[in-house]
Amino acid sequence: MAETRDHFQLKMVVTLYTTILVLGSLQAFSLFGIPYSWLSLSAVIPLGCLSFYFFRDTTETTGTKLIVILLLWLVIASALNRFGQFHETIFSPDSSTPYWRFVSLRFFSIISFALFLYSLSVLFNQGLSDRIIATAMAVGVLASVYALYSYHAQLYGLPEFRHNRDSAFGSLGEKIMFSYAFHRALGSFLEPGTLAAFLIVPFFCSMSSESRIVGNVAATVILATIFLTGSLTGILSIFLGIVVTSFFWIIQRKSVAAILSILLRLCVIAVLSIVIFKVLVHPYKVNTSFEAPSAALSPVANNLEMNFMVIRISRLMASGLEHSNRGYVYKALRNNPPPLIGFGLGAAYLALGKMLGENTVVSFLNLYLNILYSGGLIALLALLVFLAFPIVRVLKNKVTTNNPLLFYAMSAYIAWLATYFSLYDEFNLMSAIPYSILVFLSKPGPTLPREGL
Hints:
Blueprint: H1 2-24, E1 30-31, E2 34-35, H2 36-55, H3 62-80, H4 85-88, H5 99-125, H6 129-156, H7 192-207, H8 212-229, H9 232-251, H10 256-280, H11 304-319, H12 327-334, H13 347-355, H14 367-396, H15 404-422, H16 432-441
Antiparallel strand pairs: 1-2
């Protein structure tokens, strides 16, 4: 009877975990005006509560405790700033979200992330590592397949689920055009970059799949989709994650043969993904200066789409982020250092708007800067301690296993640390998955348990 009860409890937790990932992949859609991405965050609340109620005595909570410390300081800093009341007057009265709800949602985002992190620890400690990885891979493949279909549906007028949330690329129901060398994959997301970021973890989960064939196919489809997004953040983050992890792997004196095997497999999959990208990509007819495309969708018979991304990467490396399309943030902050305790969570967005001469919410597009300007140097330090914890623990405990999962989890996690530099200024649930894997693999005790459900 007890075994049946435990089995049912695990089923409930796993079902909620799957639901959260699926809802999170529907960023461009809403239900009765509520974005599915916020429904995903809301579903974390019952997941966290059930995880704590059923399995509170079997879970390591070090990472969760660290982010709770950050959350508590942000509450204190925001309270000392009176929760940014001095900014409330410039908050647009026409906004669909009142000021206090806007600020509350910023705290809710961190709370949801902490609960998700805790729940993942429960699932790992209950021996459900395979289920966590397989689910992330499956959701990533589904999101990629839909993105590939939607990509061509946009071009050729095929039926598709119309986005019912406005994005930077068009209003509801409009045909989406990009100022880019080629049409970009968007799928069920509001922006190509957010699709690419969502697929980072599923890509590396596919690489660690027990079935080599299934994993290779899934990873190739996902990586080809990432290439079609044209997101430099997604592509460079994955590359950086692999390079930095290889360095860590070498300094820990792990098997050279193991890392060469992993890198060779990654190279083969990258080549196959580029071939698929070249077959599927639909270039715009553009001029040689790589400026905005004309309205005509006309294929060009050259390597323009790959050259375009290479040139963008070269310019970015030569000029830095300040000369990128996010440069306005860095230019505004250059002469406006953060207060000792920041402006308060949520209010920092309005403070950035004032720095830019705009009475509106302006995104930092950078988690580190958002936390720094929300809670000051203390908040940034707490954030860095939290983010560094799994990497430091892997290195400190000298994890000796040559399990490829360790390599792929580290790569995914470092890729997300890079993504937080130029795309997200709030915690994203997907980054909690590699975080939890690293924490679990680096703890003293037996190796990763097999499937328990």
